[in-house]
C-alpha cells in the first residue's frame, strides 16, 4: 500500500502564508486599478486598502499571540485541487461571466468543504450572488465583468 504524502505546518505559519498571499494579490490589484479612471478605481482602491489594513492588523495579532496552534496537514492533491478551482473560477468569469462562475465556485467550495446539504448550498449560493449583484450594480453602480458569451 502506498503512503499518502502530506505537508505539515503550524497553524500560525499557514495563516501568515495565506495573509501574505492575500496582501500580495491586493497590492497587485491596487497597482492595476490606478490605470482606470478616477471614478472606476474608487471601489478597488477602497477594497484593496481595507484588505491590506486588515491583513496588517491580523499579522500583528498573530505575532503577539504566544501559541502556535494545532498542526495543519495539507495534501498536495487538495492544494492542487484548490489551485485548479481558483484558476477555473477566474477563467470561468471571463468565459461564462461573473454571476454563473461565482455561483458554481461558491457551490463547489461548499460541497468540497463537507457541506453536503443541497438546499443549504443553493440558498447560500443564490444569496451570495444576489448580494454581490445588489452591492456592485445597485449600490455602487459598477457593472459586473462581462463574459465572452455575454452574461
TrEMBL record:
Transmembrane residue ranges: 16-36, 42-60, 80-113, 119-137
Residues annotated as domain DUF1468: 20-145
Short name of any one Pfam family annotated for the protein: TctB
KW DNA-binding (keyword) present: no
Keywords: Membrane, Transmembrane, Transmembrane helix
Domain of life: Bacteria
Protein name: Tripartite tricarboxylate transporter TctB family protein
Phylogenetic lineage: Bacteria, Thermotogati, Synergistota, Synergistia, Synergistales
Amino acid at each position: 500500500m502506498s503512503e499518502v504524502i502530506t505537508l505539515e505546518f503550524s497553524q500560525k505559519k499557514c495563516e501568515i502564508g495565506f495573509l501574505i498571499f492575500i496582501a500580495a494579490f491586493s497590492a497587485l490589484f491596487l497597482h492595476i486599478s490606478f490605470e482606470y479612471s478616477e471614478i472606476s478605481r474608487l471601489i478597488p482602491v477602497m477594497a484593496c486598502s481595507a484588505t491590506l489594513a486588515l491583513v496588517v492588523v491580523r499579522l500583528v495579532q498573530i505575532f503577539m499571540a504566544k501559541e502556535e496552534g494545532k498542526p495543519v496537514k495539507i495534501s498536495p492533491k487538495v492544494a492542487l485541487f484548490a489551485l485548479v478551482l481558483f484558476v477555473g473560477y477566474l477563467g470561468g468569469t471571463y468565459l461564462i461571466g461573473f454571476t454563473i462562475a461565482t455561483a458554481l465556485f461558491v457551490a463547489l467550495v461548499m460541497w468540497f468543504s463537507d457541506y453536503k446539504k443541497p438546499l443549504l448550498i443553493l440558498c447560500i449560493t443564490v444569496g451570495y450572488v444576489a448580494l454581490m449583484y445588489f452591492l456592485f450594480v445597485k449600490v455602487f453602480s459598477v457593472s459586473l465583468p462581462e463574459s465572452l458569451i455575454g452574461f
